[in-house]
Every structure is written in C-alpha cells, then in structure tokens.
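Box 3.1 — From sequence to structure: Inactive receptor-like serine/threonine-protein kinase
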Amino acid sequence: SSSSSSSSSSAIVPIIAGCVGGAVFLLLLATGVFYLTRKAGKSVNPWRTGLSGQLQKVFVTGVPTLKRSEIEAACEDFSNVIGSCPIGKLFKGTLSSGVEIAVASIDTTSAKDWKNNTEIQFRKKIEMLSKINHKNFVNLLGFCEENEPFTRILIFEYAPNGSLFEHLHDKESEYLDWGMRLRIAMGLAYCLDHMHQLNPPVAHTNLVSSSLHLTEDYAVKVADFSFGPSEEETITNAVRDTDVSVFSQEDNVYSFGLLLFEMITGKLPESVNKPDSVDTALVDFLRGEALAKLVDPALESYDEKIENIGEVIKSCVRTDPKERPTMREVTGWLREITGVSPSDATPKLSPLWWAELEVLSAA
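Predicted structure (token representation):
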C-alpha cells in the first residue's frame, strides 16, 4: 500500500510541473502581447513631427477647427497679405512650430451679408477639399468658423515659390526651363486624374495658371480656393446654385489643354468661360501652325516631342465636351511622351508630408 501511494505521488509531480510551466508560459506570452500592443498604440507626440497639436489632427482625425486668435497670431494680425483669391484675401502665416500656412479669408464681415446658400457652399467646400489629399494639391489643413467677429477662413498648405502665372508672365520671376514646365504639367495631370477618380468625382472650380502654386523645388501644388460661382458666371440651374462642383471633368480637361499651351508658348489664352475669345496664337495653332513655331521665346531649349504634346492639347480643347479625352487618358499619353512619373512630379521638400509619413509610420 505504501509502495502504491509513493508511485501515485511520483506520477502527479510531472503533471503539476507541466501545468505550472504552461501557466507561466501563457502569462509571459500575454504580458508580451500587452506590451507590444500598448507600444504600437501609444499616442504620437505632435511636437516630434514639427506640427502644432491642431495640425497634427489633420492626419489622424480629419479637418480640425482652429480659433481665430490662433490664426490671427500666425498671420501677424492679418497684416501679411500675399494676394487675393476667389473668396477674398490670401494671407501667409507661420505657426509656433515653424510650419508655414496659407490662409484664405472671405471678404464678408457681417453675418447678415452671409447668405444661407453661401454657408452651404462653404461647408460643402470643406467636405470636398478634405477628401482630395494629393501630394500635388494645396491640401486643406483646417478652417475657422466664428460669428464674433464674423469669420470664415480656410487654412491650406503653403507653397513658397509663387504661382505659375507669375513665372510665365512676370519677367522678374524665376525662369522655368523645359524640364521644369513638363514636371509642373505632369504634377497637374496626376492631381486632376486623382480628383476625377474620387467617388464622387471632384472637378476643380477655377483651373488657371494663377491657381497653380510652386514649392521650393518647383513642383506644382494645385490650389482651389473658390467655393461658389463668381459674379461673371451665370448659373441658371437652381440645383447648381448650391453646388460647389460648378465645373465638370470635361471643363477641367479643356482648361488643362489651355494651361499646357500657356506653359509651352508663354501666351495666355482666355478662360474656359469665354471659348469664343481666345488668343490668336491658339487660333493659329488649332488651324495647323506648328507648336514649335509658337514656343515661348524665353525657353532656351525644348524637347523634340513637342508636336506630340501639341496633339494632346488639340484633343483637350475640342469644342464638343463629349469628344474630349478623360484626364486618365491624357495623363497616360503625357507620361509616355515625357517620361515623368508621379514620384518625379512630387514635391521633394514638404515638411507637412514628411510629418504625415512619420505620424502614419509611428501609429
């Protein structure tokens, strides 16, 4: 009996040891999983990214609301005016973190002058801009909406090298060589193609050379500061009266063709809203004049494939919108002609985008 009891005890010991060992293993495993999960999910210190706490939310939770006092301080009491835009004045601001911003402020200073219809357009514009998110777009960083004093402001990325219009038509601005112009054209093409592929598609509302801004390394940043029809545009459709997408994708393709022509010739055709009044150089080109004979005199050299680009321009500016190609087709043709890839057209010096990558990689 004593021998039987001893044998039974000996058999139980390995079982107990195995259970204890298994429990310890599971405890260590659970601790490790908890530690790794906690580490992966920890919050990112916004100051590590070089952005303010408010702007850091742009990349995490969507478009933030900023206080007027913060924007006022960033823009030096709104004294740093850098231009005008379809909705009012454009200011340059610098946040405490050193990040530069562009601030578009409406001219309206009284709530009674701000129509409900315009408020709808303003909100739709914010919603639309927040969805674009492209490296060749002047992305929306935030907005301000206060009633005392009455304030409606949009905050964007800042591109420091002025507009394409200035570089093409102001002799005091930096010279753009052939390669730089092709890179700008391709950045614009990739951005428009991206916008048109969104669901629902987004069409640019004011596609002219003054709405194309240039970064430190002369990549294009497409700006869209307007959020409703201008006084010159007659909109008879009651539904369109509250729609920010006044222009269609076909209009954008037409405007892109005009911009290509402007980049190559240095001449300014009339806008898409006045198709019956265009520059005589464009008329000559459409009647068969070689594009090489119309090249901007400031260009020191250009590619031998210029006439291939001319054929793309002709396709874009066809009178019947239904006969125009899509931006996807245009982008494909031009990439084959120029050899400029999306990464080639991307701004290389952009603290906001580097910060976004850091936030996303650390999340």
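Summary of the box: The longest strand covers residues 140-147.
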